[in-house]
Amino acid sequence: MNAGLIFAEVGNGLRRNASMVVSVILVTFVSLTFVGTAALLQLQIAQMKNYWYDRAQVAVYLCADLSGGACTGGAATEEQRDTIEAVLNSDTLAKFVDEYYFEDREQAFENFQEQFAGTPAADYATPEMLNETFWVNLVDPSQSDVIAEALAGTAGVESVVDQRRYLDQIFDVLNAASFTSIAIAVVMLVAAVLLIATTIRLSAFSRRRELGIMRLVGASNRFIQTPFVLEGVFAGLIGSLLAGGAVVAIVRLFVQGYLAERLAFTSFVDLGDALLVVPLLVLVGVVLAAISAAIAISRYLKT
């Protein structure tokens, strides 16, 4: 098989259908950018889970003056606080509790003011409205139910809350965004495959006389098909490389250059994660282009 002749045919095909090739590159670029974004989002979710789940605490909220429900006797007394602390220090919970600390009303009010500074809530809140709290770090954060069961019905306890519940809600939103990106990417990839197939068929139609002559002189189907497959692979490769560059730029400029600087309390994906995604995008782009081009030219030659 003459490689020079094949690449000459590839160049002729790309020149004759330049506008369609550009369209294929752009559609591939957009679709694979969504694929890369979805992959990065999944990596980010996994990283945040590892980071935050190990730091998630169990909050034992004590009864406050305005508490209702089980807090029929008003705010928790000092004796009730000592009882709760004794439970946390008991041999039963020793193997589950890593450490804990107590937050009184003044500390809770100070933290509340910092968290909600500049909002109406900060202006109207008073220390008496806030709960005193035992913040508990567990050896295994997934065993928060043990704390809830141990303190169930204890006088002075308003509620026991596992902070992982709030994290689960955030991760559910992030997962929904990731699945949305995947759905859009799938639609765009289908469009790219169809566009590649159409481009190859148009390229073959524009060279139908040359193809007829090649058949007459005994050229094999493989020899005829190879230039068209390479045209599709070229377009898919360029589109996937552009998508890889876009993914790296998103991580470098937006995630690390913007989010990481303003949200320093958590961890984010970095360039290393982005560079793991790029080969995947190139592989998907090239394989899809090669398969769709091969099927398109094969069907055309059979007609």
From TrEMBL:
Residues 183-302 form the ABC3 transporter permease C-terminal domain. Gene3D superfamilies: 3.30.70.3040. Signal peptide: none annotated. One of its GO terms (cellular component) is plasma membrane. The chain crosses the membrane at residues 20-41, 173-197, 233-255, 275-297. Keywords: Cell cycle, Cell division, Cell membrane, Membrane, Transmembrane, Transmembrane helix. It is a multi-pass membrane protein. This is Cell division protein FtsX. It comes from Agromyces archimandritae.
